[in-house]
Amino acid sequence: MTPISYLLFTLDDAHYGLAAETVQEMFLLPALTSVPESGPEVAGLLNLRGQLLPVINLRVCLGYTRQPNTPSQAVIVVQCGEQQVGLVVDQIQNVEAIAPSSITPTLETPYFGQAEQPLTTGFARWGDTILTLIDPAALGQGSPSLAASSPVLADQSNPFMAQFGLADRQVLQARAAGLTQVIADESTSDLAALAVVGLEGERFALGLETVHEFTEVPQITPIPCCPVHIVGNINLRGEILTLVDVRHFLNLQPAGPLKPKKAVVMRLGALVAGVVIDDVFDVIYLQAAEIAATPTAVYSSDNPYLRGFAQQGNSMLTLLDLPKLLTQGDLVVNQLD
């Protein structure tokens, strides 16, 4: 049978999956407006490009104790029948194709799925990890019915925002302001999905089409007699992955000794490699018209690994062509095979 694509994410230390076809978009947690008289499962309301989006605490819906929200959390927008709902999750991982043979429906077990309206459809094996699969249809049936015209909301106190300090509130409000902007051209055919990452204090955008996942860097095994940009090998759920440092090829001056903590995993055909990064900030969508040529004042105009730049709030993003960097030029990862 044909494998089904699932978006994987985490809550606490547990792993979950949503059918990718139901996912509309993803972004870091923004400021929300609390809903009066709502239950703990409702995080709040978001003005998403002119439409009110109910955002729910998935952790509470699954029966776990409510925890304070953090700016590092993310929101996944899913289509639930006629309504879109935002789900607050801890960390978005990646999209994986899972074979139906690896999935056990909850109805086939005597212990699970006994709730009146269960949110889970089953469990799946993903390497050594067990995934809990979420049913978007059940989320839609259980989501709050929120009127589009609720003038009292602006005058109510906002418990959601009260849990954050001043600096975090400003970050969340800036994110929310960006999400209110209506795209002039409703066609999304030329939208580019980009992950924003940090490296040596600068922000780079990577095309999500070749990004397999973001991962914490475990113990590194050095590789003898390799170029300096080859950091070593790591064991990623049983798969040996070569880790590389691209700072030299981007003319970045290291602030100190490399201490890898995070990496972006790229899959380019038979080539699989990890690239060291400092942080993952956001997932954004840009129109082609928003991407400009790389200014020579910032980088050498003949750097073949840079695709251009774009503005994100007060920051400038440099679009990095990691596939070209990993397969062409001086950084030759495939010679390690």
Textual characterization of the structure:
The structure is a single chain. This protein is mainly β. Helix content is 10%, strand content 42%. The chain has 5 helices and 21 strands. Strands 8-1-2-11-10-9 form a 6-stranded mixed β-sheet.
Question: What would you say about this model in short?
Answer:
The protein is mainly beta and 337 residues long. The chain is built from five helices and 21 strands.
Overall CATH architecture of the largest domain: Beta Barrel
The amount of helix comes to 10-25%
Morphology call: globular
The level 1 CATH classification of the largest domain is Mainly Beta
What's the structural domain tally?
2
Instruction: Please name the CATH topology of the largest domain.
Output: OB fold (Dihydrolipoamide Acetyltransferase, E2P)
Order of strands across the widest beta sheet?
8-1-2-11-10-9
Q: Report the end-to-end length measured between terminal Cα atoms.
A: 32 Å
The number of helices is: 5
Report the radius of gyration as a whole number of Å.
Answer: 21 Å
- Helix/sheet category: mainly beta
Mean pLDDT: 77
Number of strands: 21
Strand content bin = 35-45%
Please identify which CATH superfamily of the largest domain we are dealing with. Answer: CheA-289, Domain 4
Largest sheet: 6 strands, mixed
Indicate the multimeric state: single chain
Notable characteristics:
OB fold (Dihydrolipoamide Acetyltransferase, E2P), 21 strands, mainly beta, 10% helix, six-stranded mixed β-sheet, 337 residues, 5 helices
